[in-house]
Specification:
four-stranded antiparallel beta sheet, 2 domains, binds beta-L-arabinofuranose
């Protein structure tokens, strides 16, 4: 009798363990498209997202393309000096009102990049654009010789999936491609060490030798961004070495520059470098960026490699200069129709 009791207790424990494990797996399993509300910063928290690149496409929605952080193993981290080697699997999100969001899941992975390095990973900040019925996703990755190159992938849909071209773009180097299309339809690719080049009509190749941008300073590190407002071109970038401010900008009359240096637009975000995107959506300007691990589980050391995207308002002064962004925990309000 006593033995029978032990057996039933044992079976009960096994059953409870099984049910708990199942529930946990179900909670962890996200099915895409994944629909969620984002009512405060960071706005995307079900996965680690970084390097937002924003667009308002012809469907009138705001779309955000992001890279994805994954923890890197200590050995690689020690070798390369940072924790970004395992970054992989770009995602794209859309919203109509800044609070109700859809994550469409993974849109491109290193395993689908024919020219990428053998171990995969290294899928850093992407930049999207749209032209003549095709969506283009420009992305930096390491080639087989472990040299940074820019690749491009295409899709007929904003949510992908994107198919990578067989080779990287000839003449490119470095990281963080961003594509800007001017009002006359000419596309420009900003990338690498403050470089810009026109894109050919096919959008897959550079139409010229990259030119070095004159932005009136020497603090460019990464994350170039171009936007145009009232015929003024705003070239902005990140200086991750600065301890206080990290988003900087300069203004000019042409996509090539020269640009007049204007100083900081964003302070250093907690636990991460500023890597921003600036967009007007439904008559309001927004500044997207990312922060380091908002749960701060690994303490200061781990923060930088578990990033999440945030958004706050951006305002301009009467002379066209930008006011410094106020980073908030509340984020932005829902847009009511
Ligand atoms: O996300 C990896 C790298 O960190 C990006 O390419 C940089 O801009 C910085 O955000």
């Amino acid at each position: 009798m006593k033995n029978l009791n032990y057996i039933s207790i044992f079976l009960c424990v096994i059953q409870i363990t099984f049910v708990c494990a199942q529930t946990k797996n179900e909670i962890n399993k996200i099915t895409y498209p994944y629909i969620f509300k984002a009512e405060s910063n960071p706005i995307f928290t079900h996965i680690r997202t970084a390097d937002p690149d924003c667009h308002v496409w012809k469907d009138g929605k705001l779309w955000v393309y992001t890279s994805q952080d994954h923890d890197s193993d200590p050995e690689t981290k020690a070798k390369v000096g940072h924790g970004y080697s395992k970054m992989d699997g770009y995602h794209v999100f859309s919203t109509e009102n800044m609070v109700d969001w859809t994550d469409y899941g993974e849109i491109l992975h290193s395993k689908d990049v024919p020219w990428g390095c053998d171990d995969g990973g290294w899928m850093w900040a992407p930049g999207a654009t749209y032209k003549n019925g095709i969506y283009y996703l420009y992305f930096p990755s390491m080639n087989k010789e472990m040299v940074w190159k820019i690749g491009v992938a295409t899709s007929k849909n904003p949510q992908g999936p994107f198919v990578a071209e067989p080779t990287y773009m000839e003449g490119t180097s470095g990281i963080d491609p961003m594509c800007f299309i001017d009002d006359d339809g000419q596309a420009y690719l900003y990338f690498g060490d403050a470089l810009v080049a026109k894109l050919s009509d096919d959008m897959l190749t550079l139409a010229e030798e990259p030119r070095k941008i004159d932005y009136g300073h020497d603090n460019f590190r990464e994350g170039p961004y171009m936007h145009k407002r009232e015929d003024v071109y705003y070239y902005s970038w990140t200086d991750w070495k600065d301890k206080v401010d990290q988003g900087y900008y300069a203004m000019g009359n042409s996509p090539y520059g020269p640009f007049k240096y204007k100083g900081a637009v964003n302070a250093k975000a907690p636990g991460a470098q500023d890597h921003h995107s600036i967009i007007e959506f439904k008559n309001q300007w927004y500044y997207f960026y990312h922060v380091g691990d908002y749960t701060n589980k690994l303490g200061e050391e781990g923060r930088g490699y578990r990033r999440n995207v945030c958004v706050d308002y951006l305002y301009y002064n009467n002379d066209g200069t930008m006011k410094k962004v106020i980073q908030t925990e509340n984020g932005v309000q829902e847009l009511i129709k």
